[in-house]
Every structure is written in C-alpha cells, then in structure tokens.
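Just wondering, does anyone understand what follows?

——
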Amino acid sequence: MSDFQHISVTQTAELLADGKVVIADIRDEQSYAAGHIAGAYHLTNGSLSGFMQQFEFDQPVVVVCYHGNSSQGAAQYLAQQGFEQVYSMDGGVESWRQQQPVVSGDGA
C-alpha cells in the first residue's frame, strides 16, 4: 500500500481502545506538551528514524496534527516508506479534544 486513508475521531478512539494502533502526533513541541492523545508518539523530523525502527510496518498508524490537514502529507510519506495501514485523522487534535480527553506534559 502506498497511499493513506482518512479516519474519524470515533474510529481512531475505537482502534486505540483495542490497542491496535499507534498515534503519531506531528504538531510542534509546545502544542504536543499542552495536550495530546494519551499514548501518542511525538513524530518530528528528529524522531522519524526512531519511529521507523520502533514500529513494525504492519502496525496501523494514525497521523494527527492540528486540524487534519498537515497529517495528510505525513501519512502519505509514511505509506511511501512502507507502512501498510496509515491513516490521517480528520479534524485533527482540535476535533479529538471536543470528543475525547487529552493529556498534557512531554510524556505519553
């Protein structure tokens, strides 16, 4: 698969509850620290190599950003790198925040 798919907040929450997905948050450090999805991996240019070593290519990945726009490009990139199930979450963390809890701090 060399393309990503769109996924809703509800679908993402269901996958996360089942423990079947990695959330890759591509927002800047301050935004991530201010509030992110519990367990999200802060994916930056600097952490990309570690991300690709840590997770298997058959592990589903949901990329999130602020509003669901920038995540599409990052999701496409991960799909092109060989990740088999890549999603861009529609509405981003702002939409998630309206429906689900977020955690703050540098850690997951």
Remarks:
- Residues 40 and 87 are 14 Å apart (CA to CA).
- The two ends are 29 Å apart (CA to CA).
